[in-house]
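Exercise 7.
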Amino acid sequence: MSEASPKDDQGPKKPNNGWVRTVVDYGAAIAFGVAYFVTKDFQKATWVLVAASAAALAIGYAVERRLAVLPLFFGGMALIFGTLGLIFHSDVFVKIKVTVINLALATFLVGGVLLGRQPLKVIMGEALHLPDVAWRTLTLRYGAYFALVAIVNEVVRNTQDTDTWVKFRLALLPVALVFVATQLPFMMKHMAKGDNPQAAEPPDAGF
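Solution. The predicted structure, written as tokens, is:
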């Protein structure tokens, strides 16, 4: 997620580094899935996950000279849970990571709304201006989505084999893109005059 700043209007525009965000957000998960189905070895795939997560963060920082909060959080969690999986030779840590991350996000968003805050607005920065009512609605939608992903992940990891879980994990990527796309019309409708439509890109939801 990019953040607008006053400096953006000064001097030449920076090149579009959208590919960097794609690598940081989805590269590790895709590399993990490919490694698993090529080797059929969850431990080897976990090594790839850890290495790819570290590489994605390094690439993101090298190109943009910063790490946004969410990519740093997701990449850090992948490193932590992946490392635990390697240490204990267990696939539980990588599988449960999806539950922990999504449940944490759902709690943060919905809990923030219940406390009268606008947590999604904080995450997205000042690049987008929406009425408080619109922020509340969007935040609850994202909270519900993350909670649903956490619940479904628990069902899949506890009732299905590893092959099925990895397919489910990879399926979350296009599902997340579809969910984000369904929210864009609502955001565009409530954007303030003068806002850049590109700023209506909410945080990714495929973790």
